[in-house]
Amino acid sequence: MARYIGPKSRIARRFGEPIFGADKVLAKRNYPPGQHGNNRRRKVSEYGAQLAEKQKAKYTYGVLERQFRNMFERAAKASGITGEILLQNLESRLDNVVYRLGIAPTRAAARQLVGHKHIIVNGKVVNIPSYSVQPGDIVGVREKAKSLEVIEAALAGFNHSKYPWIEWDENTKSGKFLHKPDRADIPENIKEQLIVELYSKQ
């Protein structure tokens, strides 16, 4: 399974945002990496801004280029606002839903839990991180994985009410995907219209 495994703090510093989660390095050095990072005052072109936004979205959700382009093309064919549909589809990925449910502390950790067959959807094991969760689906932890330390630590004190499109059941350690989120409810700082403009030129 291809994924980005390079230095995460360097990427977060490039965008000036903790896109992989809390980052001590970013807190100390909130400027781009490199020898001249702290003194760089370069004007970004329109294309550069659009490209940076696409890269930010890809790194945030852990999606590589071909997969991201395929998701965009599907969103472009659907009826509605393309950028919003793209983000909704990214939010519907199984690894992201596991992360939003608080079962894992990061999307990378969620991807690992899915790949190691610790996650079930509607009672069946699904080990494909890109699996598209549909409204009404129940996503939970496999019975023998409920005592895993990483899952217990992630769930401890997690606020399940902050995402209105999912509903958590503490007794079964599972959550119901109620509906695709509205754009206003998605907390990621992504300007999806710039991504749409970038792909429309290609």
Structure overview:
Helix content is 42%, strand content 8%. By secondary structure, the chain is of the alpha+beta class. It has 2 domains: 8-89 and 188-201, Ribosomal protein S4/S9, N-terminal domain (Ribosomal Protein S4 Delta 41, Chain A, domain 1), CATH 1.10.1050; 93-183, Structural Genomics Hypothetical 15.5 Kd Protein In mrcA-pckA Intergenic Region, Chain A, CATH 3.10.290. The chain has a 5-stranded antiparallel β-sheet with strand order 2-1-3-5-4. A hairpin with a 2-residue loop joins strand 1 and strand 2 (124-125). The longest helix has 16 residues, at 46-61. The model has no long low-confidence stretch (mean pLDDT 86). GO terms for molecular function: rRNA binding; structural constituent of ribosome. With S5 and S12 plays an important role in translational accuracy. Residues 3-91 form the Small ribosomal subunit protein uS4 N-terminal domain. Keywords: Ribonucleoprotein, Ribosomal protein, RNA-binding, rRNA-binding.
- Integer average pLDDT: 86
In total, the number of strands is 5
Strand content: 5-15%
* Low-pLDDT stretches: none
The helical percent reads 40-55%
Tally of domains: 2
- With strands numbered from the N-terminus, the spatial order across the biggest sheet is 2-1-3-5-4
- Under CATH, the topology of the largest domain is which? Ribosomal Protein S4 Delta 41, Chain A, domain 1
Run of helices and strands: HHHHHHHEEEHEEH
